[in-house]
Specification:
DHQS/DOIS_N, alpha/beta, 2 domains, cobalt, zinc, nucleotide binding, 47% helix, Dehydroquinate synthase-like, alpha domain, 14 helices
Length: 356
C-alpha cells in the first residue's frame, strides 16, 4: 500500500510505518517521547510497537483507562499533569497508540499542552484506522455529548499497521467496518457493494485493500474541505441520529452502551429512510441499506418518550445552524446532499419503523 502524502502530513502503511517513524525521530531528535496507551493497547500493542522504534531519546508511557466513558476533560487533566511531571517541552514527541478514544483524546492533549507539540497517531483498532486517526479531528466528550470539545489539527503522520487488527475481537472489527460501509454510501457505490460482498469476513484477502480504499475516500474528502465547511460534512452521514443514540444509551440505565459503529449503523438506517422522503433515494437503494441493517441484528428499540429524548440530543450536533438540525442525506448510494432540514415527525417515524 503506497503512502498517502498530504501537504501537512502523511499516512503510511505496513512496514513503511516504521521506516518513516524512525527517519522522522532521527531528524527531530525529540527531548522525550511520550506514548499514550490504554490498558488494552499496553497489553497487546505496546511491546511490538516499541521494539520497532529506534531512538536514544527517553521514552515514557502514560496509560489511561479504556472506554468511551473516559474520553473526557478529567482524563485530559490527568494526562496533562503527567506530561508536566515528565518534563514535556516544545520539542517532545507525543505518540497515541490505540483506538479511537486514545487517538481522539491524545491528539487533543498534544495540541493543547505547551500550546501544541508534535504528535503521531498509531491506530490499533479498525475504527481508528479508517476514521478517528485520519483527518486531524481531535477532541473529547462533554458529559454524554459526543466530541463537543476539540480542535482540528493533523498529526505529523498516521501509521496504519494492519497487524494490530489481529489483537481485536470480531465485534470490534465489525464496529470499525460500519464507518467503511458509510464511506461507500457517501462516495462510491462500487466500494459499498464490495464491502457487502465480503459479508463481514475480515479474513477475506481483499479486506486490507478495502481498508486502504476507505482511508483514501476519507482523506480525499478531508483534503477538499479540512474545516468542514461543505464536503467534509458528508462524513457525518448517519452521525446526527447515531451520535444522539450513542449519547442517550450512555446516559440510560435501561439500555446497554453501544459501540460507536453500532450507533452509526442505526443512524444510517434512520437517515436513509429520511433520504427517501427528502432527497430522492430510490426504493432499490434503500432496500439494499435496509437489508444490510437488518442483517446486523442489533435489536434496538426505543419507547416514544425515549425517541423524543434522543431527538432533543440532536440539538447538540455540530452541523446545526442557528439552532436548526441539519442532516447529510443521500440522493443515491455514492451521492449525498448536505444541510438538509427534515421534520421531527419524519424522524419519529424513522425510529418507529426501523428501530423497533
Amino acid at each position: 500500500m503506497t503512502s498517502i502524502i498530504n501537504e501537512s502530513y502523511a499516512i503510511h502503511f505496513g512496514e513503511e510505518c516504521y521506516v518513516q517513524l524512525n527517519t522522522y525521530v532521527t531528524k527531530k531528535l525529540p527531548s522525550i517521547i511520550i506514548v499514550l496507551v490504554d490498558e488494552n493497547t499496553m497489553q497487546y500493542c505496546y511491546a511490538p510497537f516499541i521494539a520497532k522504534l529506534e531512538t536514544v531519546a527517553p521514552i515514557e508511557v502514560i496509560e489511561i483507562e479504556a472506554g468511551e466513558e473516559f474520553k473526557n476533560i478529567d482524563t485530559c487533566t490527568g494526562v496533562w499533569s503527567a506530561l508536566i511531571e515528565l518534563g514535556c517541552d516544545r520539542n517532545s514527541l507525543f505518540i497515541s497508540l490505540g483506538g479511537g478514544v486514545v487517538t481522539d483524546l491524545g491528539g487533543f492533549v498534544a495540541c493543547t499542552i505547551k500550546r501544541g507539540i508534535d504528535f503521531i497517531h498509531v491506530p490499533t483498532s479498525l475504527l481508528a484506522m479508517v476514521d478517528a486517526s485520519v483527518g486531524g479531528k481531535n477532541g473529547v466528550d462533554l458529559g454524554n455529548l459526543k466530541n463537543q470539545i476539540g480542535v482540528i489539527q493533523p498529526p505529523v503522520m498516521t501509521l496504519v499497521d494492519p497487524t494490530f487488527l489481529e489483537t481485536l475481537p470480531q465485534k470490534q472489527l465489525r464496529n470499525g467496518s460500519f464507518e467503511m460501509f458509510k464511506h461507500g454510501l457517501i462516495a462510491d457505490r462500487v466500494y459499498w457493494e464490495n464491502m457487502l460482498a465480503i459479508d463481514f469476513d475480515y479474513s477475506d484477502e481483499t479486506f486490507e485493500s478495502l481498508i486502504y480504499q476507505s482511508i483514501i475516500i476519507k482523506n480525499d474528502v478531508v483534503q477538499s474541505d479540512p474545516y468542514e465547511k461543505d464536503a467534509r460534512k458528508s462524513l457525518n452521514y448517519g452521525h446526527t441520529v447515531g451520535h444522539a443514540i450513542e449519547s442517550f444509551c450512555m446516559a440510560s440505565d435501561d439500555h446497554e452502551d453501544l459501540l460507536h459503529g453500532e450507533a452509526i449503523a442505526a443512524g444510517i438506517m434512520v437517515e436513509s429512510y429520511l433520504s427517501t422522503l427528502n432527497t430522492g433515494l430510490s426504493a432499490a437503494d434503500f432496500n439494499q441499506i435496509d437489508s444490510f441493517y437488518q442483517s446486523l441484528n442489533l435489536e434496538l428499540s426505543f419507547a416514544d418518550k425515549e425517541i423524543d429524548q434522543i431527538i432533543s440530543l440532536m440539538a447538540h450536533d455540530k452541523k446545526n445552524v442557528n439552532g436548526e438540525v441539519r442532516f447529510v442525506l443521500l440522493n443515491a448510494i455514492g451521492q449525498y446532499k448536505t444541510d438538509c432540514v427534515v421534520s421531527v415527525d419524519q424522524i419519529r417515524n424513522g425510529f418507529k419503523l426501523y428501530l423497533k
